[in-house]
């Protein structure tokens, strides 16, 4: 079980790096970062609640991502101030987009399928 938690940690770090790079490198469509954001959230939930079903992580990830996106409709001064920081911008975003919800669905299901197929059948430490 400890090795699985380590696998999830490595996946989180990898996806985090890829997500930041996707925003820094020109030519990469912005929606790639949104998909990677959802993948990161899914693996984050798997890291935190490994003992639960993978479908629970799937649902919690979708709920979290959708909540963050809907929260972007809220324009409160202190929330705007947080969004102006680098970390706040990466976590909370800045503007609501319907297309982001689709990206979150795609990213979460991609992560779920990767988790279901790859992590169950193969130890990532050997990759």
TrEMBL record:
Domain of life: Bacteria
Residues annotated as transmembrane: 7-25, 31-49, 56-76, 96-114
The keyword Membrane belongs to this UniProt entry's keyword annotation: yes
This protein's UniProt keywords: Membrane, Transmembrane, Transmembrane helix
Pfam families: DUF2809
Protein known as: Uncharacterized protein DUF2809
Organism from which the protein derives: Flavobacterium aquaticum
């Amino acid at each position: 079980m400890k090795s699985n938690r380590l696998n999830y940690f490595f996946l989180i770090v990898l996806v985090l790096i890829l997500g930041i790079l996707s925003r820094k490198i020109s030519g990469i469509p912005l929606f790639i970062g949104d998909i990677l954001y959802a993948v990161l959230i899914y693996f984050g939930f798997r890291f935190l609640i490994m003992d639960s079903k993978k479908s629970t992580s799937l649902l919690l990830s979708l709920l979290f991502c959708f909540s963050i996106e809907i929260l972007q409709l809220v324009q409160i001064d202190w929330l705007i101030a947080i969004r102006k920081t680098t970390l706040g911008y990466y976590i909370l975003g800045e503007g609501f987009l319907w297309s982001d919800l689709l990206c979150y669905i795609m990213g979460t299901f991609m992560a779920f399928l990767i988790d279901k197929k790859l992590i169950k059948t193969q130890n990532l430490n050997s990759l």
